[in-house]
């Protein structure tokens, strides 16, 4: 590193030649050379004292070239470095940053910030919303939600309750596994089911012929009370001379069901008999349709019975 070295000493009466001044000026030029001149860092005698104050409100670092610009804090054990990454257009800090008090790191304005309001606590604060976008969010610790929790477009969940009797009947609270099990167990233990036999109450008897269209069977409240939850129905073939091939039955709101196999006097079964017996939810109406091999026979009869009900 070039320093200024005095070239001449003059006293009164001396003759000053141009060469003496040239040598002196050459030293000055070398001392202020842009690359090898003195730096005023205080490390070399003749370079001047270190700069401790930059008396300006605006400072510019860099040589206006396509290069990163680093500022180094030179210490004995550890140096501190931060760098302006020219191509990436951001600052890169190579060391930790400590906010030792409750000072804030602000974003956009003073209402959005990160800080530690008290020792041991980190605060993320926003005046509208904090959005966390990631493939996986892993929370290792207890989670306390003071407001409501909404999953997607579902109803906001306000709490998780442990009530064995579900007494709150809340539309916004979830239930614990234990309380759900306790409630279901209690309901099952308290539930009773009564089957009442009805001595083949006829609700439909067909006329002769083929009836491949739905026909209503009227169930009166005298046969099945309104409190019944299900009815037991049987379909009976009364044909003696021709084959009732299939019978179908349906209840209001329930898909149709085929009632079994065919019956005729020519097969191994009796000439007549039950097609099937089954249970359906009690509705206000039951419909039936059937087909035969000989629609002209007068005894192609099908009957529908209520055998009982469950309440």
Polypeptide structure, described:
The protein is mostly beta strands. The protein folds into 4 domains: 1-50, no CATH class; 89-132, no CATH class; 159-190, no CATH class; 195-310, Jelly Rolls. Helix content is 9%, strand content 32%. It has 2 helices and 16 strands. The protein has helices spanning 18-31, 177-190, and strands at residues 69-73, 80-85, 90-93, 104-107, 109-115, 123-125, 159-161, 173-175, 195-205, 211-218, 230-237, 244-251, 257-258, 273-281, 285-292, 302-310. The strands form 5 sheets. A 4-stranded antiparallel sheet has the order 9-16-11-14, with no helix packed on it. A 4-stranded antiparallel sheet has the order 10-15-12-13, with no helix packed on it. Strand 2 (80-85) and strand 3 form a beta hairpin.
Structural topology:
Blueprint: H1 18-31, E1 69-73, E2 80-85, E3 90-93, E4 104-107, E5 109-115, E6 123-125, E7 159-161, E8 173-175, H2 177-190, E9 195-205, E10 211-218, E11 230-237, E12 244-251, E13 257-258, E14 273-281, E15 285-292, E16 302-310
Parallel strand pairs: 7-8
Antiparallel strand pairs: 1-2, 2-3, 4-5, 5-6, 9-16, 10-15, 11-14, 11-16, 12-13, 12-15
């Amino acid at each position: 590193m070039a320093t200024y070295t005095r070239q001449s000493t003059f006293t009164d009466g001396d003759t000053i030649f141009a060469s003496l001044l040239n040598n002196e000026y050459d030293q000055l030029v070398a001392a202020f050379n842009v690359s090898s001149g003195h730096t005023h860092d205080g490390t070399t005698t003749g370079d001047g004292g270190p700069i401790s104050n930059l008396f300006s409100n605006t400072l510019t670092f860099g040589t206006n070239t396509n290069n990163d610009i680093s500022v180094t804090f030179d210490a004995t054990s550890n140096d501190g470095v931060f760098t302006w990454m020219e191509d990436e257009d951001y600052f890169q800090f190579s060391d930790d940053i400590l906010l030792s008090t409750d000072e804030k790191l602000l974003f956009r304005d003073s209402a959005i910030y990160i800080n530690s309001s008290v020792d041991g606590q980190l605060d993320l604060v926003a005046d509208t919303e904090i959005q966390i976008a990631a493939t996986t969010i892993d929370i290792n610790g207890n989670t306390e939600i003071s407001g409501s929790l909404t999953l997607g477009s579902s109803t906001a969940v306000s709490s998780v309750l442990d009530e064995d009797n579900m007494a709150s009947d809340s539309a916004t609270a979830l239930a614990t596994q234990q309380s759900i099990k306790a409630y279901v167990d209690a309901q099952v233990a308290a539930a009773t089911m009564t089957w009442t036999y009805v001595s083949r109450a006829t609700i439909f008897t067909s006329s002769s012929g083929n009836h491949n269209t739905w026909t209503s069977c009227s169930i009166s409240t005298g046969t099945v009370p309104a409190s019944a939850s299900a009815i037991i129905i049987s379909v009976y073939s009364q044909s003696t001379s021709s084959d009732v091939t299939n019978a179908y039955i349906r209840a209001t709101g329930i898909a149709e069901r085929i009632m079994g196999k065919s019956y005729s006097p020519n097969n191994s079964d009796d000439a007549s008999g039950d097609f099937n017996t089954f249970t359906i939810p009690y509705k206000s109406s039951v419909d039936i349709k059937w087909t035969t091999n000989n629609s002209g026979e007068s005894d192609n009869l099908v009957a529908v019975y209520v055998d009982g009900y469950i309440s």
